[in-house]
Amino acid sequence: MINHAVWYRMTRSEHDGRRAWRAGGVAGLVAGVVMGLVLHGILALMPTIGALVGIESVAAGWAVHLFNSTVFGLLFVAVFDHPFFDELRSDVGGCVSLGVVHSAALGVLTGGLVLPVSMAGAGATALPVPTLPLPGVTAGLEFGVVSADARLLYGNVLGGVFAGFTLEESVVAWLPGAPTDR
Q: 102: Cβ–Cβ under 8 A, 6 or more apart, which residues?
């Protein structure tokens, strides 16, 4: 718990900084749930994600995915909570744009580097992805399209939820109360 006497002595920027970190973590988690529903519902990928840590189960896959999503939400704050991005972070559209850029960069990093290294470490030679309606060559294309769509969705939700927790009420009229109450 936060000591309320200390909380009230903090400067506005300290309040805003804590709110940004909290918002990033929550936004990453919420975006992870939405992305996970797509990955699990369409590609049945959660056991495969769990297998990357040695436990091939849906529960392990969700745990790993949501942990990573939350960490990536915090990374979003670490990267974009700087004065250079102040103008973009001043409205919902800018926050969503930053979320999409962040998610695309993560897609390249995780899909192009982390996943292949993890698979090689586990001794896998191919991603054990179930084929979608059409097996063969189109399955890889379909996997790529669904995965890219899930990442785009993650970025949109990440930016939108972050905006909801950090922007003033006049900018985010669809949320009740001041950002300090969220």
A: 72, 75, 76, 79, 80, 155, 158, 159
Please spell the DSSP secondary structure of 65-125, one letter per residue.
Answer: HHHHHHHHHHHHHHHH-SGGGTTGGGSHHHHHHHHHHHHHHHHHHIIIIIHHHHHHHTT-S
The pLDDT assigned to 126 comes to 60
Predicted confidence band at 136 (pLDDT cuts at 50, 70, 90)? Answer: low
Give the Cα separation of 52 and 127 in Å (integer): 11
Give the start-to-end residue ranges of the domains of the chain. Answer: 11-181
Quote the pTM value: 0.78
Cα–Cα distance, 130 to 115 (Å, whole number): 17
60 neighbors 11 (Cβ within 8 angstroms): no
> 3-state DSSP helix/strand/coil percent for the chain, to nearest 5?
75, 0, 25
φ, ψ (nearest 5 deg) of residue 136: 95, -140
